[in-house]
Amino acid sequence: MKIGLITIQNSCNYGAVLQTFAAQESFRKYGHVEIINYQNTHTDKTTKKLRFGTTPRDVLRFGKDFLRLLPKIRSLKKFNLFFNNHYKLSGAPTQDLSSIKDKYDYYVCGSDQIWNPQIISEAGTIDSNYFLGFTQSKNKISYASSKGSYNYTPDEGKVVCSLLKDFKNVSVRESDTAKYLNVELQRPVEHVLDPTLLLSKPEWLDCLKIKKSQPHKKYILVYVLRKNKILSQTVQAVAKKLNLDIIVIDQDPFTTMRCNKHINDAGPVEFIELFSNASFVITNSFHGCAFSVNFNVPFIITPPPTGLNRIMSLLEEVGAENRAIKTKDEAVSLANTPINFEPINIKLQAIRLKSQQYIENSLTSATHSSNQ
Fold it and tell me: How would DSSP label each residue in 181-199?
């Protein structure tokens, strides 16, 4: 069985890369999986040493890249090494996917925000390739695809429904997106786990050949999309309360936060190592939340700049929504309260089994094509 997977695979974004790998590994149990090497010139920009452009945002990106040039070069080498060692790609990067329209028995789109126009397109438009629009296969499957917190206009909604009408099975990553598409498509749409949660902590460490180690000094890992006053206050207060070092991981040239260590050149494997060895995590990132839950690391979610629905969807599913705070005082109170991960793990495992069953049912119930 040949399975083609399209997602945001070529990016120096930890969440995007790790969910790609986890999806590949999860589907690999059922056949030969290839990640479709779609060349998206917008999302690919993060893999460039210096990002050029004419918009004000491009100028800011160039400035950030220039100030962080040496760490970025080191980081890019680690990401490229990860791609070479862990990705099974369909071939050379290409924007024209017509040559593979009949190559696979099953076509899968997902996960990540492939259905969010603001993420996948400079112009903010829907990309039909992420809806498998390049193939007429009868075996199209969506797994944990996401539009993030983006709301489609009525016209965009019609386009999306048209692209999804011939899918065998549709699943998404957020509960609110599942409800929306249930109504719009007038068919069942499953709410499933992000691929990173399909692999348990032991599986992650084994797949990436990471040995569990004891850090020299216990630490809080800070991984956030954007820093703000509440975050800085929370980190300092919790670190003082728990007597922990502070390690900040991001891709910024420098950090304004007081910390013991700022890591801005980590690769995907180091990212997993840092989460697996942390004593506490403070994050406002969806994947920061996902790995904290999955690895059973006590954590706090500070207000994110966007995408709270993605985080709360997961936290509500596992019964940990109280870990999302709005004030520093809430954070200190939570830091003093040990997390009982047992009920969280029971719920996570139940959803994991349901998500894995969705994959199995999708592949075994789809109409098998003659492409061998």
Answer: HHHHHTS--EE---GGGTS
3-class secondary structure, 368: coil
Q: Which region, left, alpha or beta, applies to residue 147 given φ > 0 means left and ψ of -120 to 50 means alpha? A: alpha
Distance, in Å, from the CA atom of 49 to the CA atom of 287, rounded to the nearest integer, reads 24
Over residues 213-260, the pLDDT tens digits come to 778 899 999 999 888 888 999 999 999 999 999 999 999 998 989 999
Largest CA distance in the chain: 63
Report d(CA 61, CA 55) in Å as an integer: 10
Place of tokens 């954590």: 299
Structure tokens at 175: 């509960």
- Return the ∠ at Cα 255 (arms to 242 and 267), rounded to 5°: 90
Q: Which residue shows structure tokens 């569990």? A: 212
Burial class (CB in 10 A: 0-12, 13-18, 19+), 326: exposed
The answer to whether 344 touches 350, Cβ cutoff 8 Å, is no
Q: Give CA torsion, residues 166, 172, 178, 184, to 10 deg.
A: -30
Residue 363 pLDDT grade (very low, low, confident, very high; cuts 50, 70, 90): very high
372 band by pLDDT with thresholds 50, 70 and 90 = very low
Strand partners, 302: none
Question: What letter does residue 321 receive in the DSSP assignment?
Answer: G
**Mean of pLDDT values over 122-148:** 97
Backbone angles phi, psi at 246, to 5 degrees: -120, 120
Confidence (pTM)? 0.94
Q: What's the confidence (pLDDT) of residue 365?
A: 64
